[in-house]
Design goal:
Elements (H helix, E strand, L loop, with lengths): L1 H11 L15 H5 L13 H4 L6 E4 L4 E8 L2 E4 L2 E8 L2 E4 L4 E8 L1 E4 L2 E14 L4 E3 L2 E8 L4 E3 L2 E3 L3 H26 L6
Parallel strand pairs: 1-3, 2-4, 3-5, 4-6, 5-7, 6-8, 7-8, 8-9, 8-10, 9-11, 10-12
Length: 190
């Protein structure tokens, strides 16, 4: 409330640089006088501090959501989320956040806990407080000392190299299953 009263008082006070009523003959000083600067708001709003072309959605620490999230902007999660996240922007999982999720984003920074699959077309950053249980795929990966992860990691491959590796591995896995069946005398017809 004090902030409101101060603002109201500031609006009523004349600014020191305001132009007064000009005499009938203009003087040199009046011609060179600059217009008064706009009053400064003592508290900048959150919206003003973000770049105009970038939007960020924030889920606070007391928020718990289950569902699907899609969009073009950035997302910052400090609460709990269960479901799918498919965004074209950056995802920031704050310390203390708990996600059971399938993530697909441009860049992902994890400071909290994530259980599920993380796919980033750019960079994934695991901070010292990060805990990931699941698979992770990214163009680049930054891992801070103290972070924890259990699962498969794939990074540094371009799309064509990754496809070759996945197809080769899947093909070899199919051969080993067939060979094991033949050794055990198990036929496909049961």
């Amino acid at each position: 409330m004090a902030l409101w009263k101060e603002t109201a008082q500031n609006e009523q006070r004349p600014m020191p640089n305001e132009q007064r009523a000009m005499p009938s003959e203009p003087s040199e000083k009046a011609e060179k006088a600059e217009p008064a600067p706009a009053p400064v708001n003592p508290v900048a709003s959150r919206r003003e501090s973000l770049p105009r072309d970038r939007h960020e959605s924030v889920l606070g620490s007391g928020v718990s959501i289950e569902g699907k999230m899609e969009g073009d902007g950035d997302v910052r999660i400090a609460g709990k989320f269960k479901g799918d996240i498919h965004i074209k922007g950056n995802l920031n999982v704050q310390k203390g956040a708990h996600l059971t999720v399938k993530i697909n984003a441009e860049a992902v920074t994890i400071e909290g806990e994530v259980e599920g699959t993380v796919v980033a077309s750019g960079q994934v950053t695991l901070s010292e407080s990060a805990q990931v249980v699941g698979d992770l795929k990214a163009k680049t990966l930054i891992v801070a000392a103290g972070s924890r992860m259990r699962g498969n990691v794939e990074f540094g491959w371009n799309d064509s190299e990754a496809a070759k590796f996945a197809n080769g591995r899947a093909h070899e896995a199919g051969k080993t299953v067939s060979a094991a069946r033949e050794q055990a005398g198990v036929s496909r017809e049961l």
